[in-house]
C-alpha cells in the first residue's frame, strides 16, 4: 500500500517525538512504582544485552520511535537497530529490530514498549485494511476523538501511518456542532450563527445532522461541512443530492470494515470511523532471544 500524504506523516512524527515523553514516563511510572522487583532479584549488576524484536503476524508497523524511546528514557545509552520503518508491511516471523541496553533496562521496559508498538501497529493495520477498500474512490478516511485517554497522540499518528487522515485533534482544534450543542443553542441556525461570530474566519464549521430536515437547515445556515450521522444509506444519498456540493459531506456512525462497502457509493467526501482507534485489535509483536553481549 502506498501511503497517502506522507509529508503530513513526517510532520506528525516530529510532533510525536516532541510531545511523547511525558506520556511515556507516565506509562513507565504506572508499571514501575518503586522498582522492578523480579528483574532486580535475578540481575544484581549491570550487564550489556541484546534482544530481538520479532513480528508474529502480518500487518503494518507503527510506533518504532516510541518503542525505542521507552528504553532511552530508562537508559540514554540504549540503542536500537531497526530493519523496517513505520508504514512498512511486515510478515509473521520477521525480525524488525535489535535493541541493545543494560539487560535490566530491556527487562523493565519490555511491556511498556510493546504496549505502544502493538497498539499503534494494530491501529495502522486496521486503518490500512479500510483504506484499501476505499482505494478506488475519492473518499478520505478520518478518525475521531474516540481514543484511549493519554494515548491520542500515538493513536492518531498510527492512523496516518495506516493511510488514514486525522479529524480534529481535540476540542481546541475545530468547530463541530453536535446534537447537544444544537440543543444548547436552540437550533442549527443559531448554533452556526454564534459559531461564526465567535470563531476566527479561518475556522471551518461542521454540523452533525441526523435527518434530511437538519441537513436542509445546516445548508441554509452556511455550514462548511455537514456530517450525516447514523442515517440510512438512502437518507445519506438523498442528503448528498440535496447538498449538491454546497458543503463538504461526512458520513459517520458505526463505520467498520464490515460496513464500508455499502457506504462507498453514497458520494460523500469523508467517512469517519471511531473503530479505527477504539476497536482495532493489537498486532502480535514480541521481544525474544535476550542474551548478554
CATH superfamily of the largest domain: Aldolase class I
Rg (C-alpha, Å): 22 Å
Strand percent estimate: 15-25%
CATH A-level architecture of the largest domain: Alpha-Beta Barrel
Secondary-structure-based class equals alpha/beta
**Helix proportion:** 40-55%
Q: Helix tally?
A: 10
The largest beta-sheet arranges its strands as 6-11-10-9-8-7
Number of domains: 2
Please provide the count of β strands: 12
> Taking all residues together, what is the mean pLDDT?
93
Distance between the termini: 38 Å
Q: Categorize the overall geometry.
A: elongated
CATH class of the largest domain: Alpha Beta
Low-confidence stretches: 1-7
Largest sheet: 6 strands, parallel
Order of helices and strands: HHEEHEEEHEHEHHEHEHEEHE
Q: Output the CATH topology of the largest domain.
A: TIM Barrel
Keywords:
alpha/beta; Aldehyde Oxidoreductase, domain 3; TIM Barrel; 2 domains; six-stranded parallel sheet; 12 strands; 43% helix; disordered N terminus
Structure summarized in a few sentences:
The protein has 293 residues and is of the alpha/beta class. The chain folds into 2 domains: 140 residues, Alpha-Beta Complex (Aldehyde Oxidoreductase, domain 3); 146 residues, Aldolase class I (TIM Barrel, Alpha-Beta Barrel).
